[in-house]
Structures are given as structure tokens and as C-alpha cells.
């Protein structure tokens, strides 16, 4: 893995890249977009394993306000999911010269990936969402409140601070407060999905504590391009930690099928 700080007008973005050995194949890079409390470090060894399994370069970055990236300049707006496509992701694409790419987003990163796939339709070859939300469910809000209470226990916030430093409280409040705001009461990903023309794979854990499998069904139903779903039994909200082998196998098979259609 190689990592560096990418300068942008809004602040520095921590970017990391994994290359398969001996060298990347013909496929375009896979760009990972993390979840609401995530960062590059919390992908753990998933990017390296994905690079080896697919023969593709894998790129990830910490959004502003998370991980090793610069603090976000002020409160996170309720438009933050839509904003990523023309904001940090656009900066990463431009600076890394990504003419063609695959997007893989986990949880809220899946929603951001959907927006980016439509906004950057000239370069996005495929969209993969993992445990993404396409609409707000009672389960989504209840799961967030439960996590908030767990992080309020002694030592809870310090666990976040290991990854986000003094931005940990901001990251937590951005997650909890935005999703419980009036703006998110009737939030939907529908408009973004309608602009996705590339092939889409929507993956969801059957036991996901933040959303039912209807989330993946809605994503697949509303994209304008060809789409399919994969539901993982016995898996919750974080497949790249709970069942990484199944996730990597599903992603690799999906991308291989795109390169060699029947």
C-alpha cells in the first residue's frame, strides 16, 4: 500500500492505493467510498485482498472530517451524500487521472457512489453498493441511536478517536444528527439511482442492523442500467469484516462477467 495527502481547495485528503502483484491487469481501478464513521484504516485488509482477487488497482480515501484527512470546514450539511460526487471524489478523480473506474461504496458511501456514478457517467464502468441505504427506515434510525448509546459508554468515543483523532466527536454528531434531522425524514436515493447508466451490483446482509434487504432491492430496481442483487445470509452491516471472502468473490465474479459477457 502507498498513501499520501492530496491537496484540495477544501483541505488535504488522505488517499491510499493498493496494487496487485505482480502488476494490475487490464481492468480499471476500483475506488472505495467509506461509511459514516469509516476511513481508510477501517477497510483493514479488504482493499489488499480485493486487489489480488480482481487483478485491479484499489484506491480509497478519507473524506474531509474523517481519518487522516483535514477537518471539515464547519457543520456537515444535510446535502453531504449528494455533495461528494462533485466535491472530494471529483478532486480525487482529477488528481489521479482516473479516466475509467469502478465505484464500490459501503453504507452511506454506497449512496455517495450512486451519485458519483451518475455525475461521472463518462468514466464509471460499474457501481457496487454494499449495505447501502436507498431510503430511511425505522431500522436505520434505531440502529444509529443504539450505536450512539454504545459510543457514549466509557471509552466509546476514544475508540473513534483512534481513527479520527480530535475529529471523532464531529464525525459522530454528523452521523447521528443528520440522519435524525427533518431533512432526512423522507430522504430517498431515487433521483441519483435514475441517473446511473452503468451495470450495478447491490449487496446486502440479511441481518443488517441499519436496513432491510429492501434497500438493495430498491437500488437494483431504480437504476437505469442493468442491475442485480446479492443477499448474504448470516451477515450484518459490515460484510468486508463479517464475510470478506463472500464479498470479494461476489465483486470479482461481477467484474469478471462485465469483462467477458456471454
TrEMBL record:
Q: Which domain of life is it from?
A: Bacteria
Report keywords, A-Z.
Hydrolase
Q: Which InterPro entries match?
A: AB_hydrolase_1, AB_hydrolase_fold
- Entry's Gene Ontology molecular function annotations: hydrolase activity
| Annotated AB hydrolase-1 domain residues | 29-240
Record flagged with keyword Hydrolase: yes
The UniProt record lists the keyword Hydrolase: yes
Protein name (database record) = Alpha/beta hydrolase
Which organism does this record belong to?
Billgrantia campisalis
Amino acid at each position: 500500500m502507498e498513501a499520501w495527502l492530496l491537496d484540495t481547495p477544501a483541505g488535504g485528503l488522505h488517499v491510499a492505493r493498493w496494487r496487485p502483484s505482480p502488476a494490475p491487469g487490464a481492468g480499471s481501478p476500483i475506488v472505495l467510498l467509506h461509511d459514516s464513521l469509516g476511513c481508510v484504516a477501517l477497510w483493514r485488509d479488504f482493499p489488499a485482498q480485493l486487489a489480488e482477487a480482481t487483478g485491479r488497482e484499489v484506491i480509497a480515501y478519507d473524506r474531509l472530517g474523517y481519518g487522516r484527512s483535514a477537518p471539515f470546514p464547519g457543520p456537515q450539511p444535510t446535502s453531504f451524500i449528494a455533495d461528494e460526487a462533485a466535491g472530494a471524489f471529483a478532486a480525487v478523480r482529477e488528481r489521479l487521472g482516473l479516466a475509467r473506474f469502478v465505484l464500490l461504496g459501503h453504507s452511506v458511501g454506497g449512496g455517495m457512489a450512486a451519485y458519483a456514478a451518475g455525475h461521472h457517467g463518462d468514466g464509471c464502468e460499474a457501481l457496487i453498493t454494499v449495505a447501502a441505504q436507498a431510503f430511511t427506515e425505522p431500522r436505520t434510525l434505531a440502529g444509529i441511536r443504539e450505536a450512539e448509546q454504545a459510543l457514549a459508554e466509557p471509552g466509546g468515543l476514544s475508540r473513534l478517536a483512534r481513527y479520527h483523532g480530535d475529529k471523532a466527536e464531529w464525525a459522530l454528531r454528523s452521523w447521528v444528527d443528520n440522519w435524525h434531522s427533518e431533512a432526512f425524514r423522507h430522504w430517498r436515493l431515487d433521483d441519483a439511482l435514475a441517473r446511473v447508466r452503468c451495470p450495478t451490483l447491490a449487496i446486502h446482509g440479511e441481518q443488517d442492523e441499519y436496513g432491510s434487504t429492501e434497500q438493495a432491492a430498491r437500488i437494483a430496481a431504480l437504476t437505469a442500467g442493468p442491475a442485480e442483487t446479492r443477499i448474504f445470509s448470516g451477515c450484518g452491516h459490515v460484510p468486508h469484516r463479517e464475510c470478506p471472502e463472500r464479498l470479494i468473490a461476489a465483486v470479482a465474479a461481477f467484474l469478471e462477467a462485465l469483462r467477458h459477457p456471454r
